[in-house]
Amino acid sequence: MAPKSSHGTETVLRTLGINETYQLAMYLLDQYRGTILTCRYAIPPSLAPAESRPKLEEAVKKAVADVVLRHPMLQVGMKDATSKAPSWIQLQSLDLAQHMHWVYIVEQDDFEQTVQNTFRVQLDEYFPDLSIKQPGWKITVIRQGNAPIMEVLLTWNHPQFDGAGAKVFHEDMLEMLNNADSRRIEQTGLKGDILTLPQAPPSLPIPIESLNSLPVDLKVLTKAFWEDIRPQFLNRDISWAAWCPIRTSPYKTQYRAFFVDNASLLRILALCRENKTTITALINGLALIAFSSHLNSTDARAFQSSTVMDHRRNLPPAPPDAPWARSDRAVSNYVTQLIHTYDPDLVTRIRSKLPTDAKEERDLSADLLRDLWAVSAQNRREIVGKLENGLQNDLVGIFKYVTDWQQTMKGLVKKRRQFTWLTTNIGVLDGGSTKPIADDNGQRWSISRAQFGLSAEIPAAAIEFAPVSVAGGGLCFSANWPDCALDVKFGERIMADMERWLAQLARQS
Q: 3 with 14: CB under 8 angstroms?
């Protein structure tokens, strides 16, 4: 396990890993702020009435406490955050009142609008000063009268954990709510809002680079080094997103989302299987057509996009004493990226089949649909190839050679933008509704929908897509972009295309 050392009254657990340090640098430089995964929980009838509010709040607080005890990354603070080598430190207790907030609205208020407004506001909010050494996450619960539902927004600072970790948080919280009789918090003590943490230093999930060698071929490393140091006038790669220059301020996230019902999603997934692709690869294919439609060949003759992937499949089994039990259930930072390139010939072929007026809201023609499925299938093959190659030539392996992340990220915003779009799909969340229990007396909790969102990532893609689905509950498709770099109407046209074409696929399946 990771070495631990004491400095005065603080116990240093380990230094931040590569992904954690990279994410922290963006936060410190105001290039990225927050990430949110919100879920809609169905409340058991016994806790839904307004008079049961104290019991409901207590049940949720205890469930959150149990999740905190299961996942050490939710318990730790940060030391020397602005240095080149920040560290995670052990905390003695957490004041859950600083991490949980209840919002009660009246019957006349619009519940959905309240959720979306809260979501957008929290994406761009700062976390408390890192010097206070508290974990960078918070829960906001939105309730309305006696409604049998509540919205639970989990907002976090990305150095603490990634989107897959947030999905585990919600799934584990649901488990704790449904297993209130087997709680562990009594072993350490939850008194009021104060959760006393175990005295023994927690064993944190280990960064991927400390578990594996992450081999990088010399050719790949040389190319990455050249791209980092070359003058920008020597960058003649026409697939880079020169059409959308990087701008750093004023910082504001533009965020949009729409929902696809479960019946439509199932029809789309059936089409994906029929065409040997996946929903992630399909999104990349649709995005290629959308951007080809709204950008002409003068602005963009080719494109690059990035697909965010999860390294948990490459982890060894979790240590026997790990409270999270399985490597795929670790709340930590295990993301990587896969780059896709769409060459000029492909983009020209796509454009030749588009309507002459890109402003017209049209369905995809049969000819374009054939190209869509061909591109999506190729995209899926690239993803499968990355999975088969494991850690060979992985981006995190290249990141090992970065010695000062803040300096690196300061330099990155002065360069040309590489990606036109990014797709980060955290997959299917188990909301419990597909697992009926015979003896639950209708008192079980469940999750009916989820929504995932990122704040604007200044040096990254022009637009970032963040889909998430709940088993049996449909899909939420969201996008964000930096307001200072991309015209709002342009982003909305891209999202309108994505929504219209997904609906078309659902109709035609």
A: yes
Residue 420 corresponds to which amino acid?
T
The position carrying tokens 């050494």 is 133
Give the residue ranges of DSSP H helices in 328-438.
344-352, 366-389, 395-399, 405-412
The Cα 272–Cα 505 span in angstroms is 10
**CB-based contact 423:305 (threshold 8 Å):** yes
Q: What CA–CA distance (Å, rounded) separates 493 from 481?
A: 13
What SS3 state is found at 458? coil
Residue 80 has pLDDT above 90, yes or no: yes
What are the angstrom distances between the C-alpha of 359 and each of 99, 119, 267, 294, 338? 45, 30, 28, 8, 31
In this structure, what token pair is assigned to residue 366? Answer: 């049969």
Cα 94 from chain centroid (whole Å): 25
Q: Convert the pLDDT of each residue in 134-187 to its tens digit.
A: 999 999 999 999 999 999 999 999 999 999 999 999 999 999 999 987 665 555
For residue 408, count other CB atoms closer than 10 A to its CB.
Answer: 14
Separation of alpha carbons 187 and 182, rounded Å: 11
Q: What pLDDT does residue 237 have?
A: 86
Single-letter amino acid code for the residue at 310: D
Helix (H) or strand (E) holding 213: none
Token couple for 181 = 């009789």
